[in-house]
Each structure stands twice: as structure tokens, then as C-alpha cells.
Design a protein that fits this description.
The protein contains four helices and ten strands. With 199 residues, the protein is an alpha+beta fold. It has one domain: Nuclear Transport Factor 2, Chain: A, CATH 3.10.450.50. The strands form two sheets. It has a six-stranded mixed beta sheet. A four-stranded antiparallel beta sheet has the order 1-2-3-4, with no helix packed on it. It is globular.
Amino acid sequence: MKVSVYGQVAMVTGNCKSAQGNDAFFLDIWARQKSAWRTLTMQDVVLAKDAPPAASSPAEQAKPYECKNSCETIPYRVRSPVEQDIVNAFQAMEKASIAHDAEAWGKHVAEEFVLYRSGRAPIPRAASIATIERQKRDNIVVRLSEIEAMRLSVYGDGASMIATHGDPDNARPPYRDASVWMKRNGQWQLAISVETEVK
């Protein structure tokens, strides 16, 4: 088990076993409210040992893609300038993914970032950047799931973002994403993302 603190937000992470005995990873997000630590969310995700190879086809590459939700709009009413800064950083990452701009994507992602996704091996920051570069090299069109609902909570220099995502084309099962953001050197960066399929 590991505890990481970002301002008034803390994340407790570690490995566990699912009810079916599979290897899983858990993320518990805590926030300091009124001099006490309180749980914001608890989420786990069943992992695979090795990441499956990325699939692409010429037909997929040929289809144009325009990212509205989540690159331009999200179903969330921003309540403060700080929340707007985090949303701006999130949308900049989404746009960078579509544009195959690994450098722009990396500006909003902490060095220690890891993506945990159902049925996949953990994906560290460097591997995510390598994937974006490979997609650019191979001219692969990137499509993003749309955000159906989102909750953003900011506590000092730390923030929790919880969102449910769905794919209009059902290319990927719906999932719930729990992530932690932190303000470092005056800029909001994504520290961790845990995507659990909703069944």
C-alpha cells in the first residue's frame, strides 16, 4: 500500500485480489475537510499481466473524427477559476491525444503518472507518450469516449475528478474514471487515472 498526498488530497493505492481471485489495483481518494480526512471515492480495477497489442485497421484510419465531447464541451458546470484551469488542462490533453501531440499531452501529466484500465497492464507516462508517437507515425485515428457525467472536487493544490464515459459507437464498454490532479510549479497535472468498466 502507498499513500501520496497532494495538498489537501491524498490517494491510497495498492494491489489486491478481486472477488473472483484476479489481480486488481485499488485507488482510494481522500480529502481534508474541516480538519478531518474524509473518503471521496474508492475504486478498484482488475488488471491483466501484459498489455494487449494495439489494434488498427485501414478502415479505421480512413474515417474522419471530430471531438466535441470531451475536447470542446463537457457535461459539467464549472464553479470556480481553479476548476476551469483543471478542465482546461484535461481538454488540452484530450486535444493532444487526437492531434498525436505527445509533447503537448506530456505537459499536463506528472512524471509519476500511471493509467490503470480494466483488463490491461498498468501504463506509465513514458509508455503513453510512446503510444501517442506510434499512432502519429502509423497515422492512426484516435477516438475518445464521451463524458456522460462528471464531478470535480478541488482542495488546495489537489483535486479529484470522477467521470463516467460512454462510447457512442459501443467500440469500448462504458467505464468510470477516477483521477487525481495536483498543482505543481503553478500548473495542474494528472497524477493517476483508474478506468473501471461498468457492467
